[in-house]
C-alpha cells in the first residue's frame, strides 16, 4: 500500500470518527432537551394534581354542607376555600423552571469577576452593606455594598456610593460600591412575610431563616445562632448555589441587606465555613447616645 493510499485511509477514518461524534452529540442534545421538557411537565403535573385534589375535596365538603344542616356554615366556608385555592394553584402553575445548577453557574461567573476586580484593586475582604436614606421620612431607600480599600475604613457619604469606584478625599473612605446581589430579592422578602419585615433583629433573623429555606429555597436549613446588641449570626447548610463564603453570595447578601435596612446602620457581613455549614455574621455600630 502506497503512502498516498495510507494518507487517504487515515483522512477517511478521521472524517468518519468526526461524523460519528457529531451524531452522538446531536443525540445527547436531543435527549437533554427531552429530559428538560419532561422535568417541566412533571413539575407542572404536580401542581395541577394538587389543584385538582383541592377542588375535589372542596366540592365534597360543599356537598356535605348541603346535607348536614347543623354544620352547614362551617362546611360551606371550608369547601369554598378548598375550591378557591385549587383554582388559584391551577392557574398560577409556573410555566418554566430554572434549575439550581443554572443559577449557581450564573452567580459563580459574576462572583469570579467581582472577586478578581477586588483583588486587582487591592481592596480588603470587608463586605459592608450601607443603607441610604436612613432617618428620612420615607425610610431606607436602597442599600449599597461597599468594599473598602483601607482596613480601618470609614463609610463614605451616601452620594459617593453612586459611583462604582469610590474616590474621596479621605483615603479611608475609598473603595468600590456595588448593587448587592440580593437587592431585588429583598422586595420578594417583603411580599413573603406578613406585613413588613421585622425591625427587631432577633425576629428578623427568624423571618430570614424561614424565607431562605421555604420561600427562596436557597438553603436546606437555616437558623439564627446568635443575636446580640450589635450582631446577629445565622447558620446555614445545604446551599443550592455553592459556597456561601464567595463574593456577595445571595444568602449572605440577603442577610446583610435586610439587617442594614432594619438597624439603619452600615452592616459588615462575614461568612465563615464550619464543616458542611456556613455561619454568616452581620455586625453594626451601636449609637452610644441612644
UniProtKB/TrEMBL annotation:
Coiled coil segments of this chain: 18-45
Segments passing through the bilayer: 51-68, 74-92
Residue ranges constituting the DUF7982 domain according to the UniProt record: 19-284
Classification via InterPro entries: DUF7982 (IPR058288)
Signal peptide (UniProt feature, chain positions): none
Top-level taxon of origin: Archaea
Keywords from the named record: Coiled coil, Membrane, Transmembrane, Transmembrane helix
Protein name: DUF7982 domain-containing protein
Amino acid at each position: 500500500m502506497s503512502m498516498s493510499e495510507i494518507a487517504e485511509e487515515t483522512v477517511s477514518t478521521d472524517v468518519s470518527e468526526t461524523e460519528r461524534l457529531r451524531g452522538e452529540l446531536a443525540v445527547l442534545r436531543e435527549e437533554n432537551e427531552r429530559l428538560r421538557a419532561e422535568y417541566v411537565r412533571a413539575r407542572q403535573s404536580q401542581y395541577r394534581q394538587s389543584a385538582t385534589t383541592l377542588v375535589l375535596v372542596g366540592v365534597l365538603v360543599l356537598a356535605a354542607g348541603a346535607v348536614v344542616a347543623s354544620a352547614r356554615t362551617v362546611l360551606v366556608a371550608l369547601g369554598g376555600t378548598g375550591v378557591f385555592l385549587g383554582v388559584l394553584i391551577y392557574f398560577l402553575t409556573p410555566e418554566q423552571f430554572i434549575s439550581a445548577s443554572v443559577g449557581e453557574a450564573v452567580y459563580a461567573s459574576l462572583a469570579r469577576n467581582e472577586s478578581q476586580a477586588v483583588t486587582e484593586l487591592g481592596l480588603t475582604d470587608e463586605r459592608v452593606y450601607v443603607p441610604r436614606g436612613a432617618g428620612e421620612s420615607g425610610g431606607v431607600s436602597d442599600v449599597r455594598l461597599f468594599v473598602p480599600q483601607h482596613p480601618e475604613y470609614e463609610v463614605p457619604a451616601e452620594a459617593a456610593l453612586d459611583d462604582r469606584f469610590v474616590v474621596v478625599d479621605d483615603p479611608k473612605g475609598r473603595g468600590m460600591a456595588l448593587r448587592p446581589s440580593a437587592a431585588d430579592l429583598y422586595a420578594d422578602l417583603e411580599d413573603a412575610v406578613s406585613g413588613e419585615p421585622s425591625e427587631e433583629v432577633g425576629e428578623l433573623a427568624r423571618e430570614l431563616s424561614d424565607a431562605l429555606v421555604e420561600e427562596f429555597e436557597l438553603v436546606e436549613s437555616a437558623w439564627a445562632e446568635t443575636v446580640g446588641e450589635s450582631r446577629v449570626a445565622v447558620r446555614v447548610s445545604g446551599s443550592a448555589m455553592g459556597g456561601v463564603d464567595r463574593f456577595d453570595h445571595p444568602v449572605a447578601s440577603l442577610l446583610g441587606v435586610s439587617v442594614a435596612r432594619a438597624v439603619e446602620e452600615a452592616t459588615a457581613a462575614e461568612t465563615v465555613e464550619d464543616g458542611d455549614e456556613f455561619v454568616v455574621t452581620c455586625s453594626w455600630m451601636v449609637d452610644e447616645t441612644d
